[in-house]
Amino acid sequence: MGKDRLAAFSDGVIAIIITIMVLELKLPHGADWATLARQGPHFLSYVLSFIYLAIYWNNHHHLLHTVTRVDGLILWANSHLLSWLSLIPATTAWLGDNFPAALPAAVYGVVLLLAAIAYVLLQSAIVHRHGKRSALARALGNDLKGKISPLLYIAGIGLAFVSPLVSVALYVLVAAIWLVPDRRIEKVIGES
What we know:
single chain; mainly alpha
């Protein structure tokens, strides 16, 4: 099977996830700065989640450039990733409604951690299908950001019960780390 249907399906699911998130934004009931300020946690949690989804979409797009054939394992690994990403709107809304509360901050981190693990499993499925000398296997190399991110998520989950603000700051840090474009796949494909 080719990768085009997988890419189109994934793009559609991520677009729907973002649409659900924006529909969860609450309009302010009032026309003053204080009313607008009360919407700050909702808006900031939306922005953070939108950035995460954009990062996943961008990296997924690059990841699929390394794929020539799709098998059942890749399909299931991709669905696994999309299932965790689909929980982001619910955890975003809960975090925004209850900021800064410990449990919503921790659950938000758990979903981010499980999405990161699912992404690594998708990478592994692709490498398994295409081989240890494939473009993706060569591009992944050491993958320092991929190793640091889960550790920061775990720290954020634990710290949520001590300081939810520090917890969310760690999630922002991970997003900032991934905002820096990762050119490994582009470089390997360019060399091929």
